[in-house]
Specification:
The radius of gyration is 14 Å and the shape is globular. By secondary structure, the protein is an all-beta fold. The chain has one domain: Hypothetical Protein Tm1070, Chain: A (Sandwich), CATH 2.60.290. The strands form 2 sheets. The protein has a 4-stranded antiparallel sheet, with no helix packed on it. Strands 2-7-4-5 form a 4-stranded antiparallel sheet, with no helix packed on it. The protein contains no helices and 8 strands. Strand 4 and strand 5 form a beta hairpin.
Amino acid sequence: MGATKRGVITTNTTTTIKAIQAAPTSDAWENDYGNHNCLVLTNTHTSTDVSVIVFFEDAGANTYIIAKTSIPATTTLIIEKGLDFDNSIYSLKITTTGTGKPLHYTLE
């Protein structure tokens, strides 16, 4: 399993949660790149929603959406499926819009 990564998003932006990493062997799966159990997104704003798009992106800027939703104030979204990916080809990103921030994330 990949290492846990945490962060806070405070502006409307696209944030790279896990960047593309070259695999040291021909098989990225042997190195646990992109092998995660869940992504936890928590809107800690007390009164406003935040809209999120969670997606994979390759080096050619092709995107593959995992989730597109609005997270209500003081609510947590947990994504537990679809997070096993070849990190030598794809990065994991989140785009946020709206005023409901900060948005805390944990990738486990």
